[in-house]
Design brief:
By secondary structure, the protein is of the alpha/beta class. The chain has 19 helices and 22 strands. The longest helix is centred in the middle third of the chain and has 29 residues, at about 245-275.
Length: about 550
Amino acid sequence: MRFLGINAIFHDPAAALVVDGEVIAAAEEERFSRRKHGKRPVPFSAWELPELAAAWCLEQAGLRPEDLDGVAYSYDPELVVPGGPGQDGHWEDLRTAYARRAPTFLATALPGLDAAQVRFVPHHIAHAASAGLAAPHRESAVLVCDGRGEAVSHLAGHYRDGELTVLASQALPHSLGLMYEDLTQHLGFLRSSDEYKVMALASYGEPRFLREMRDLIYATGDGGFRVERIDWSVYAKALGKGEKWTADHADLAASVQIRLEEVLLDLARWLHERTGDRCLTMAGGVALNCVANTRLFAEGPFEEVWVQPAAGDSGTALGGALHLAQAGGDPVRPMPGADLGRSWTDEELGAWLDVARVPYERPADLAATVAAELAADRVIAWFQGRAEYGPRALGRRSLLAHPGNPRNTERLNDVKGREQFRPIAPMVLAERASMIFGRGPVPSPHMLFVHDVRPEWRDRIPAVVHVDGTARIQTVERGRDPLLARLLEEFEARTRLPVVVNTSLNTAGRPMADDPRDALECFGSAPVDVLVLGPYVVRRGAVFAG
């Protein structure tokens, strides 16, 4: 059977396609529209659909809208409590009205679709399915934490043979995700977008306000939690755009970050006591907090923690489609990886370069050629294979650099136009990871955990070591990604360093590059030395010579 999943209600609109229980395609609308996060999470935008992503998913499988057996919309307006807590003031009824009309909107956006084929999947059920059904486990506990769904902000349960049992949920207004969004806004960042900046800033502070946070944010012992009203200005003044943060702001971020970790540990322990599962699967925006994920892995009761690579709202498109497939009796299979987006053939990529009229070459040994450029401390724009689903660059749409030059952290942050307190990440062969990195899980292919950098390596790869001595690593499997594996080997042969810097191929405020034009535009507008587009190499000096 053929099921399309749609996320549209809040932010990060996305589409995903599951055919006969197999994940065929998934992509965020921002990759097509070039609007960061697709849209802002306000009730007025709830009507906007991932039309381009949905059309591409169908095209990828050679399907028409009328071929679908169902469309999952990852929000159920019937679960909304009118005038309930945690809603968008006087405008929540507008969001609900748009959601109720989603079947008609979708039938208009996808001509040929029968509106009766659209089914509402509760938001947190879709999140849970994106974890429990997509993970490589038939049995697992599942923990979902985000800002909000229809009336709750959290779900705890477990999967057995594809069936979800919900054990607890937390009613609004109490929300760990909304609490973290409020802090993000107070610190001068964009809410529902820049929460990862708060996580990075926390490493520069001391948890001076942790005692107060423990009184305000706490688990209740029944699988839920409470978040009391917090006046952030008591601890640090609100920052406007462009204002510089102080020690008070970093200390507040550190205090909230640690308290979030502690509450998640309490929730995980409660869940483990009731399920006895060895594996915890996670989704929801809070599951993108890789510092908290590592603490859950290191100190929590579960032997294994698996996090959906698209853990935010975009992942509910995949979860909704998987949920319908499971309910329809299809044998649902784990997602094959995060590389579920668009790709181009070598011939198509060459045609793009011809149209752009840039000089390029096709080296006999691409890995060796690029490794030599990296060893010479050049920044590489790397465009290979299918684009990633989710917010992490995983060696498909990446900027690569030398980890041994301590200036490269500042250099890449300048290239991308972002804050200098932001860390950059390393990629490493899976079999080499434990030699260099500790504490976090290995393998770690999706950059969803932080790992301690072993002391003897910190001075050797300073560009990827955060101020707290950690790094958010991506491990590379030879069988899964042979070209990246060979690149790492060739780089190590030249530098004796088995690590390469990997950060996303984009500049600040822009979505990650997705198609060849995006990569060429980024290469042309940012101080990147070399563009690798599939098998082709474009050198900045050759393009801009004379």
